[in-house]
Write a structure and sequence with these properties.
Radius of gyration: 21 Å
Mean pLDDT: 90
Strand order of the largest sheet: 1-4-15-14-5
Strand content: 25-35%
Largest sheet: 5 strands, antiparallel
Number of strands: 15
Order of helices and strands: HEEEEHEEEEEEEEEEHE
């Protein structure tokens, strides 16, 4: 179950390191060449705050979070400091001003009313599309042919009303946009995470007792 509340500020004040990890099978053949197979279409992120727990107050805040989530049982939203917007960040953790044409979601076909939010990454002539399933609803802005949906003229089927689902990232229009219209959006988004394991809290307390600080690790959960 997702508990849709952010961790306490005292937990989030530390600089988390974001690590996206893919699963790749690599097999070496007799010639010395290798074969690589991509097991996951999308990576899973690990978020680590080195030496995050430094005082009793930090431990209390973490304990409260741990008890409410029943350790790794329940999930909660987390803001990836390196990647949480529909456009590239100027600095880690710095919130950009998103625009309604940041990401193209689709070209309307005249019958579809639902469109998945997508964040596109580009390197050279290659792209990777990441489905966004936990958008910050109040941040989402949408456009049809670069116009706000409510301002689309009647000859293009306007005006349009729309909503976005927090748990799926699906934008739904009240009627299908006219075929050929470019559907685009800008948004901020979170990642659904949990504690690493049932032993995480024990390890944190032991490290804090011994050295006066402890690492904090959250792992991403892929939606079912």
């Amino acid at each position: 179950m997702l508990i849709d509340a952010y961790p306490p500020a005292s937990v989030m004040k530390f600089g988390f390191v974001s690590t996206p990890r893919f699963s790749t099978s690599i097999t070496a053949v007799a010639s010395g060449a290798e074969r690589r197979n991509r097991n996951w279409a999308h990576p899973l992120h690990t978020f680590t705050a080195p030496e995050a727990i430094e005082c009793h107050e930090d431990l209390v805040a973490l304990h409260n979070l741990w008890m409410v989530t029943a350790g790794p049982l329940h999930t909660f939203p987390f803001r990836d400091p390196l990647d949480f917007a529909s456009r590239d960040l100027q600095a880690a953790g710095e919130e950009p001003t998103v625009g309604p044409t940041d990401q193209i979601l689709a070209i309307a076909d005249g019958s579809q009313t639902e469109f998945q939010l997508v964040r596109r990454y580009i390197f050279g002539d290659q792209t990777y599309d990441r489905e966004i399933t936990l958008p910050v609803v109040d941040s989402v802005v949408v456009a049809l042919d670069a116009l706000p949906p409510e301002d689309v003229p009647g000859f293009n089927g306007g005006p349009y009303e729309w909503t976005v689902d927090r748990t799926t990232g699906v934008v739904t229009f009240d009627h299908p946009p006219v075929a050929g219209m470019v559907v685009s959006a800008g948004f901020l988004f979170d990642v659904e995470v949990r504690f690493e394991s049932d032993d995480s809290y024990d390890g944190i307390v032991r490290s804090w007792k011994v050295s006066g600080h402890a690492d904090l690790v959250f792992v991403e959960v892929r939606p079912c």
